[in-house]
Design a protein that fits this description.
The chain has 291 residues and is α+β, with helices and mostly antiparallel strands. The protein folds into 2 domains: 1-108; 113-290, Thrombin, subunit H. It has helices spanning 2-8, 10-28, 30-112, 279-290, and strands at 116-125, 133-136, 149-153, 159-168, 173-177, 184-189, 195-199, 207-213, 223-226, 238-247, 254-261, 270-275. The strands form 2 sheets. The chain has a 6-stranded antiparallel barrel with strand order 1-2-5-4-3-12. A 6-stranded antiparallel beta barrel has the order 6-7-8-11-10-9. Strand 7 and strand 8 (207-213) form a beta hairpin. The longest helix has 83 residues, at 30-112. It is rod-shaped, with a radius of gyration of 51 Å. It starts with a helix and ends with a helix. 21% of the residues are buried.
Length: 291
Amino acid sequence: MQFLYFYKNKKTFTLIILLVISFGLMFFNVKISFLQIRNVLFFVVYPFETAISWIGNSVVKTFSSFKEIEELEKELSLTKERLTKYQEFLTMYEQLLKENEELRKALEVKNSFSFKSIYAKVVFRDPSFLNQTLIINKGSVHGVKVNMSVVSYDEAGNSYLVGKTVEVSPFSSKVKVLNASDFYLGVVFEKNRYIGIMQGSGSFNNCVVNYVPVEAPIEIGEGVLTSGESDIFPPNIRVGKVIASSSSMTDKFFRRVYVKPVLIYSKIKDVFVVLWQNEEEILEKKVEYKE
């Protein structure tokens, strides 16, 4: 009968037993439960807290990055300006070094002359294909006169004849180069010392020396110098070298000698106007003065 009573009221007894077990667990494990609840809450909240913290840090870092980028752009702009100025200064410095080197070399050449001279620069060239004239930046106020010889120098510092002044203004002068068709010059061959009259050939580079005796032992490659038998050109200035020689059937006494000038028209930059007078002319003036 008791078993039947329990069977009929099994739900009630089951509820009572569960309540007793629950209260017992709560009584004996209250601390553990609180810790477990805290852990559960921490486990649930932690991802959200981490996400919010990460988003906040990302936002702060983003704004900081924008500011840093802006500052870097300003610094980069200033650096570019400084670099541009530095490059300009470097270019100017290199140009000054080059000009100083050119002036030093020009001074060495000037000091090697046995005559006085005026240093000048070429500022304009003949626009035609004839290449017969140059304009230099020195004129009458600097002591330049018409019919003064003009010389220049090569990379090795060796001087050579360019031509002579034909027009002079206060601050500039026109120079006719020696390959002009109407340019005449007394020359002497360096080895055998025979003398002739050299004439330019116009637009061509080569010049012709006339009135050279047939018996003169002219050698190919022989140097040609100014003879000094002139009121304009000092002696022994380099002119060019012999490249060919020919004789004519109609002329039994003289032959032609072809000379390649040293000067290269397009490369002439620095020149010297020669202040020179023939010694014979000076002696004649002294004699006239005494009389």
